[in-house]
Specification:
Among the domains are: 99 residues, Immunoglobulin-like, CATH 2.60.40.10; 73 residues, no CATH class. Helices cover 40% and strands 22% of the residues. The protein has eleven helices and ten strands. β1 and β2 form a beta hairpin. The longest helix has 24 residues.
Length: 252
């Protein structure tokens, strides 16, 4: 299972990898090898054993794509069922794909300088208040012709507001555990672009989408996707997080 935590202060993402003891056994030496450590066993990210299984974390630059796999006791390879995608290798296997989105860092110091500069201009603004009142009278005189032109001005914004109604804004389906960028794209292409639509989707349809996409996607289990999506659609993020903590790659 993979969890991503994007930094708000720098363009990096903390990635947490985890495997269960049922997958690799007890007292195993498990390491994460990938393009970020030259696929080296010695440089591999060692996973520590806990009550639920093995886990390890590291920070990686955001806005990039990485390949990785789990290596147990230096000889047995394992893939992550919650990977964003899979890349075929010349060795008749697949590497896991980890896709990290770019992070936009907000410039807070610039905003603070703008607020400090505002009080300095407050005094001349008060002096300009008196002529503003004098200008109010001619504005009232111009009100009569403005009413005649009102119907023409209302027509143009009315046409602009129709566009958003016809185009539904898709939700970030990657927030559902077990769904990566590729699978999210498959769902959107099949008309499932929102949490509400995913919450109403039947298992037969979801499995049909995965099977039609090829053998690399058939290993995914969409059983909990509608349940997670209903919580996301209702804005119950804390309940969703509690549920996802109990899942393993989107599975119960």
């Amino acid at each position: 299972m993979i969890k991503k935590q994007y930094s708000k202060s720098k363009p990096v993402c903390k990635v947490t990898f985890s495997l269960t003891k049922e997958q690799v056994g007890k007292k195993a030496d498990v390491r994460v090898l990938g393009s970020f450590n030259d696929w080296s066993w010695d440089k591999g990210l060692a996973m520590k054993a806990g009550k639920k299984g093995y886990s390890a974390s590291l920070e990686l630059p955001a806005g990039a794509t990485y390949e990785f796999r789990y290596l147990v006791n230096g000889q047995d390879w394992f893939n992550d069922e919650a990977a964003d995608d899979y890349q075929p290798t010349p060795f008749f296997s697949h590497n896991c794909i980890l896709a990290l989105e770019a992070v936009e860092i907000k410039k807070k110091p610039a905003a603070k300088k703008a607020t400090k500069a505002a009080p300095k201009k407050a005094s001349p603004a008060k002096k300009a208040a008196t002529p503003a009142k004098k200008a109010a009278t001619p504005a009232k005189k111009a009100a009569a012709p403005a009413k005649k032109a009102a119907p023409k001005k209302v027509a143009t914004p009315a046409k602009k507001t129709t566009a958003p109604k016809t185009t539904a804004k898709p939700d970030d389906l990657k927030k559902i555990e077990g769904i990566g960028p590729k699978i999210a794209g498959l769902l959107v292409a099949d008309g499932i672009a929102t949490f509400a639509a995913l919450g109403k989707a039947k298992q037969t349809k979801l499995k049909g989408i995965l099977e039609a996409a090829g053998s690399r996607y058939r290993m995914h289990d969409p059983t909990t996707w509608p349940q997670q999506a209903k919580l996301a659609a209702a804005g119950k993020w804390e309940q969703l997080k509690t549920l996802q903590d109990e899942l393993k790659g989107g599975r119960k």
